[in-house]
Amino acid sequence: LRFDTQRYHMGKHWLQVKGDLENVTQLRPMKDARFYIKWECSQCHELTDSFVYVSPTETCDNPRGKGEVNLAYKCKFCSQSITVVVDKAWDSVSYDEEDSGDWKNIVAFESRGSIPREFDVRGDWKCTSTESSTTFTELELQEDWAEYDEVGDASVAIYDFEGRFED
Description:
The chain is mostly beta strands. Helix content is 0%, strand content 52%. The strands form four sheets. Strands 7-8-9-1-14-13 form a six-stranded antiparallel β-sheet, with no helix packed on it. It has a three-stranded antiparallel β-sheet with strand order 2-11-12, with no helix packed on it. Strands 4-3-10 form a three-stranded antiparallel β-sheet, with no helix packed on it. β11 and β12 (135-139) form a beta hairpin. The radius of gyration is 18 Å and the shape is elongated.
């Protein structure tokens, strides 16, 4: 038997983010994060019609065998079984003030049968002011975000936030 690595594409794909931070550091997904992604089937190369979320805190049985995965579904075009696991260290990396304007790996996804192609920044993020220890939570970053840190007496903002995937 020959294992078709193209058909069952397995690999680690990094979600990279970039944005312009103003008096903000430690930008990261909240604990109950959902990552909204369009996936390409590695067998028929069709892209999911809509963004499919994967959450590091939600698991299901692996339809391919042992263990649990964070996402399992079948391609609606060719019925290939697809599984995704979010790297266990997903909440240990943050986008910091010194990263502002540069791409940085934030979280890794190990997928079988699919490749992540598009990322939608919707979902809840959190950050800390560089001028105090004030934490801002439940940030929606589809648009520019700005607030005022009363303790640090400074404006805080995140502009032009976006994401992409890198193998």
